[in-house]
Amino acid sequence: MPTLATPSSLLLTRRLLAVRTFSTSSAGYSTTTTVEMARSALDEVTDTGAFDRSPSTFRSSVSSDASARFTPVPGRYHLYVSYACPWASRCLAFLKLKGLDHAIGVTAVKPIFERTKETDDHLGWVFPTTADEEPGAEPDPFNGAKSVRELYEIASPNYAGKPTVPVLWDKQLKTVVNNESSEIIRMLNTEFNNIAGNPGLDLYPVHLRASINEINELVYDAINNGVYKCGFAKQQGPYDEAVTRLYEALDKCEEILGKQPYICGNQLTEADIRLFVTLIRFDEVRILAGKEVLQIILQ
Q1: Where along the chain is the active site annotated (predicted)?
Q2: Is this prediction's pTM over 0.85?
Q3: Residue of 294, 282, 207, 216 whose CA lies nearest to 253
């Protein structure tokens, strides 16, 4: 990979996170419908060797509309997360910024995948058996589930897909409301304002939506998901393509942030959070999991 001498922290991040030696020989909600999809990221690699993320499957919404199935009631919902997961960390950031942590509880799983059942070899997010087993992680307080996989099976007994975090859980109906982080953060931004501690903060303001959507599209494909495309690629071609797009996107973000304090102008928006939660964890997570860096950013 090319060596970049630019001292900027963002460009340094860009430089480090994708430098890897590659070898072609390396390795809507329903309770009754069987959902068949990838069980893990390793199942999301195509025949061409490229990583192709499966869509989220639970896509219901919390709405302040009185006729909605899921209404914004304090204490009704719970957020299951992993602190190692950038998608879940988006939701945690919104929860804190909007002042909703008093109304929506949070439980974190253990940070490293383990076997989710004794009957098969599936690896995924699991809960500790005791509160002091893993710092920051806690047993499931409501369902006694041993893994996120079990939560999905409580919500949909025939579920056969990828059990991911974040999970926005309805304690009243004992089901997954939504497991798509981009949709959960929009709900947290607007639908809970009547019970939010900071209802005046709008991270998706109308006058910036076109700019936010444009940046989100760039950042999601090339950076948020781009690091996975690098980490899980099994052929040289898809890997090179992902790395190139990653470099170009980070260059673009660096150019924008060199001219203004936030990625979409003079105020914090969801686009900043979506970028930040991926960049901040390269040192702690990507070296161990994605394997697309050779040294940490601090070096």
Answers
A1: 85, 228
A2: no
A3: 216
